[in-house]
Amino acid sequence: MNNESKAHPKTTSGKPAAVVRAGQDVLRELRTNEVFIAIVGPAGAGAGTAAKILKVFLEESGFETEVVKASGLIRKAAQHASREVPPSGARKSLAGVQMMQDRGDELRQGVNYGLPKDHSAVARLVLREIGKRRATLRGVVYSGDPVEPDGSQRAFIVDSLRHPSEVALLREVYKDAFYLLGIVCDPGKHERRIRENFFDRGQWGNPEVKVQVRDFLSRDEDAPDKYGQHVSDTFHEADFFVDNSEDAGENLALTGMNDQLRRFVNLITQSKIVRSTVSETAMHHARSAQMRSACLSRQVGAALVICVET
Beta strand 154-159 with 178-184: parallel, antiparallel or unpaired? Predict the structure, then answer.
């Protein structure tokens, strides 16, 4: 029997028989080995810090990791459209961040960019940037067309999303390879962090400063315009939540997020077997109870959990 006959065994009818392969082998060939993680959280919650920690943990798991900053993409688009942006390298200020909010809102509105209104406009910039980064990692020239994955383990972290339409587009494109990470923070903590980061020490207790910060956070959470920032709505789309209420300074090894983020990485990379926590199991039961009702207005579920120490 020659090599061709071995490759295509014959049936009794003389026709080639179907080659049977293990399902795991087929799935291994089809998967991209890429993961896409977007972060959402209120200003001052620590989305940028979470992105840095995730990058470290993913690289430890063998993933080439790229962090894509949405604010940087908005800045480039604004500069290309001759819109004003804060000076590069200057100390961050509340006025500068508010200016970037304006540029993001304008981009979604489309008017000053010669584009149609598109609430997912920032996500489209992210998609293009990921294509460019993948092309660079593959050593090919980016032409604007989609760049196919080559099977290498890669992770792309998006810091950060501010509108639910951005989440919807990325989920549509990346399907089950996309994860949204929500950063939780005590409201008083992230408000204080903004005052300390954007104002001099002597202004921290100024009543006017406190009002400015609260107005800024209110716009960040739920802007009056549909094309504005809607972090609250985006946050509720998250697949995994991490608490960053604990202050840790600049040391990334000491934040309260580390154990939670490492667990998240183990879950999405399947590098370790991770058991569900009591809280996650309770949420599963609550979700199941919710779905028992056929009436959408009555789909509310709850689970009462009693923990007994042994």
Answer: unpaired
Out of 79-88, 106-115, 289-298, which region has the weakest mean confidence (pLDDT)?
A: 289-298
pLDDT of residue 139: 94
Q: How many CA atoms lie within 13 A of 95 on its CB side?
A: 6
Q: Which of 173, 82, 177 is nearest to 128 (CA)?
A: 173
Query: 215-234: string of b/e by CB count within 10 Å (b at 16+)?
Result: ebbebbbebeeebbbbbebb
> What is the per-residue pLDDT across 53-80, written as a single tens digit (0 to 9) for each?
999 999 999 999 999 999 999 999 999 9
* Statement: residue 294 has pLDDT above 90: no
**Contact present, 34 and 156 (Cβ < 8 Å):** yes
CA distances from 114 to 71, 77, 80, 81, 225 (A): 20, 12, 12, 9, 19
Q: Is the pTM of this model over 0.90?
A: no
User: Where do the H-state alpha helices sit in the chain?
Assistant: 3-7, 23-30, 47-60, 70-80, 94-109, 121-138, 164-174, 187-198, 207-221, 231-235, 258-269, 278-290
Domain extents in the chain: 31-272, 275-310
> Domain 31-272 carries which CATH code?
3.40.50.300
Pairing of β 178-184 and β 64-69: unpaired
How many helical (H) and strand (E) elements, i.e. helices and strands, does the chain have? 12, 5
Specify which residues 159 forms β-bridges with. 39, 69
Q: Among residues 40, 77, 66, which one has the least CA distance to residue 132?
A: 66
Cβ atoms of 39 and 183 closer than 8 Å: yes
Any idea which residue has 């910039």 for tokens?
125
CB atoms within 10 A of CB 172: 11
